[in-house]
Specification:
This protein is an alpha/beta fold. The chain is 24% helix and 29% strand. This is G3E family GTPase.
């Protein structure tokens, strides 16, 4: 029996991982396999986690999650060989990926026969500015969508949401547009009720040349991070960033991890839990940050200079 694929796309920080987390945590008996670029971002409730092996996290509700490393088609083939076989596969793309390229790969006859693409879901941050909506990559993501999920709807008034809906409908009239507070998207829109039905292949537009726009830079430290200093550092870097995330111990709460996220110009901090036995595993830095920016906008030297100012030496 074919295994339908749900492709989740959307710009950096739109809320794709929140949607995938919600799908896995509310599988309602479905065996879902999630393939994600940023494996560490999946944050399923602890009671759902059953174990991990071969780069795959098994969940006690029958779902699994694995990291997309290397060739997508090879990853899908490995999932289809699993026993029991998943009933659905969710692929979360990178925020800088053009879904048309991924869709084209999924049209491979060998993959289509076993795992046809059922639905393309595009997650859009409702706070996205009018200028940002003109971004060519974001528009390509929207034009590929069957369903558009508007995230962070609680941060925008009714007029702002209506304006965004008009833009989405103009770009993709056939798409179903839904509000997705906390990542909640109706499963009926994403998964077919009839598992025996095979969707029709999609018409592919002309292949566009790939253009590298973004780069990833990282920063690590073996020292504790001062939260007030971190806020100052992020304030200096934020205008140049498309996305940032990190995991670190703080001066204010040693022995506990803090999760940092920057998306859509908004920074958030959340508890990451206590460290195992009060210490990190060998080889893992005490503070780890990843920054995504347009190529050439930021340098490693600038990040090091700014971030070094927010650590507590000791």
């Amino acid at each position: 029996m074919p295994v339908p694929i749900l492709l989740v796309t959307g710009f950096l920080g739109a809320g794709k991982t929140t949607v995938v987390n919600h799908l896995l945590a509310h599988a309602e008996g479905r065996r879902i396999a999630a393939v994600v670029n940023d494996f560490g971002a999946i944050n399923i409730d602890a009671e759902l986690v059953a174990g991990a092996s071969d780069g795959v996290v098994s969940l006690s509700n029958g779902c699994i999650c694995c990291s997309l490393e290397g060739d997508l088609l090879r990853t899908l083939a490995a999932l289809l060989r699993r026993d029991p076989r998943p009933e659905f596969i969710v692929i979360e793309t990178s925020g800088v990926a053009d879904p048309s390229d991924i869709v084209r790969n999924l049209m491979d006859p060998m993959i289509w026969r076993e795992a046809p693409l059922e639905t393309v879901l595009c997650v859009v941050d409702t706070t996205t500015t009018e200028e940002a909506l003109n971004d060519a990559l974001l528009r390509s993501q929207l034009r590929a969508a069957d369903v558009v999920a508007l995230s962070k709807v609680d941060l925008v008034d009714a007029a702002g949401r209506a304006k965004l809906r008009d833009v989405v409908r103009a770009l993709r009239p056939a798409a179903v547009v839904v509000d997705a507070l906390h990542g909640e998207v109706p499963a009926a829109l994403l998964f077919p009720a009839d598992l025996d039905r095979v969707p029709a292949p999609r018409e592919m537009g002309p292949r566009r040349p790939a253009v590298d726009r973004f780069e990833t830079l990282s920063w690590t430290s073996e020292h504790l991070v001062s939260l007030p200093r971190l806020q100052q550092a992020i304030g200096r870097l934020a205008p140049k960033l498309a996305r940032a995330k990190g995991l670190f111990e703080t001066v204010e709460q040693p022995g506990r991890l803090t999760v940092f996220q920057l998306a859509g110009g908004r920074a958030t901090l959340a508890p990451g839990g206590a460290l195992p036995a009060g210490a990190l595993p060998a080889g893992v830095a005490r503070a780890r940050m990843v920054f995504i920016a347009e190529i050439g906008v930021l340098s490693t030297a600038e990040i090091d200079r700014v971030m070094e100012a927010c650590i507590e030496a000791g």
